[in-house]
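Interim report, section 4.2 (structural modelling).
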Amino acid sequence: MTIRLKKNPVDIIFSSITAIASVSVLLLILGILYVLILESYPSIEKFGFLRFITSTDWNPVKGSFGAATNLFGTAITTVLSILIAVPVAIGIAIFVTEIAPNFLKGPIGAAIELLAAIPSIIYGMWGLFTLAPIMANYIEPALQKSIGSLPLVGVLFEGTPMGIDLLTASVILSIMIIPFTASISRDAFNLTPAVIKESAYALGATKREVVKDIVIPYSKVGVFGGVVLSLGRALGETMAVAFVLGNNHQITKSLFDAAATITVTLANEFTEADTDIYLSSLFYLALLLFVMSFIILALAKFFILKTEKGIKQ
Amino acid sequence: MTTAQVRKLKNGIALTVCTIAAFLGLFWLIFILWDVLVHGIGGLHLSLFMNDPAPPGIEGGGLRNAFVGHLIITFFATLIGVPIGILGGTFLAEYARGRKIARVISVLSDIMVSVPSIVIGTFIYAVIVKPVGHFSGWAGAVALAIIMIPVVLRTTEDMLSLVPWTLREAAFALGAPYYKVIIHVVYRAAAAGILTGILLSIARVVGETAPLLFTSFNNSFFSANMNEPVSSLTVTIFQYAMGPYSNWHSQAWAASLMITLFILVLAVLGRLLLAWRYGKRPTI
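Predicted structure of the assembly:
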């Protein structure tokens, strides 16, 4: 559907304006990348890449910076939140597409998506004042008593449960990303051709067998895309974790210790950076975060598009 | 047990687990909303909206500065972000329809929607705050506008694509140039959808904190001057919640309640509009 009309001068102007507006997205992405590289250049020059990401030194007084503690915090909270969220989210998607009676499908799906509308600062407030005490008083001591006495994994649950730690932050993050994973999984499940499902039911398959042997094999790439998208979201989440992580620049053994993620460090220290190299290192962190999340989100988009295309053909 | 019974049992267990998962999701939603409501309602007094903050530790005082500041920042962000988003979406759905550039920008916008908002904050700090030399409301508004653009752009593109092509052909046949067709026919047909996009994009940015931390910063005094640091509700909530005073906490909860209510109303309104007009739901 290409449009070949006699060009009206106003039309040329209007189309150029719209073209500029849409290219602004591309320019913004390139601009962000350029500015972040430019601003972090002093730090890149001083610390290099490998040294920066492997150094655990975060010392504003000595002017020596490394991102390892931040990367560690980001990786642990993200992976842990995905581990908690994905099974629940897939359960929700199965419930909404296959189990719920028709009149409940819409409302329950919409209600869970409303979780995504709640701003992250509210999650942070709730996490700090409500969830953290619950974690510190009930859940973490219980975990310590049960799994904490086991060999090997026991070390993850050592220390005094304070509620301001990696575990609480991961739980909050997992609640935040459930709607993303659930929503995309649901869309992927819905793309399964009804005829194939009906054929399986006609052969006498149970619902569980239809989901396990038909729906999930059909939609696994899409569901995976949803998981990767949630990973990208969790990676860049700031306020929800800023309240409950404590900004502690250490690599810790226990999940009951405070830590720092890239985002939390930025939120807490950006306005306090008093030296150029300090600020530059913070920009370096932002650059790392931007590049990582961009790659992860692009991958997610790739998987999601692939499912949609694959089913259409 | 026979095989059939085993299969039935497995089926029953699997279905129960999934149902529990769904109710767990609902449980979190209700838990959080209820908690915000219970804590927030105690702090809701008229003084919250009428007074500026009192010095720390002194009772009384409100968040008038933050409410007004938040409103101004969001207003200007909408003013910058929405036109760019709508025009950009128009290009993708109309002039560049079916071309490779439209696909590329569309995918890039989808990625931009999920890029960490704190990165946008650092970007604006580098390009506006640092050259100007101080934090300002404008910087905050631009940061929020950057977050809005891809959201509005993608919904506009989707909504314009839903308008039947024959409608445009009918207008072309009357001799209308393309820009007139877009403005008088396509925009009108897609008005409800575009409005939904705007509502959802406002809902998206109104709760943002991270991009405001180092752009509009905070201001304990009343200021409607966009060239100065402007107080916002979300940054104030962060500062108050982390602070030691209990009346700060109760004000932070009250502000959280107001923001949550505002966003939920917008989100529900947007959803109803989409369901009513198109029978579909927004992509999150």
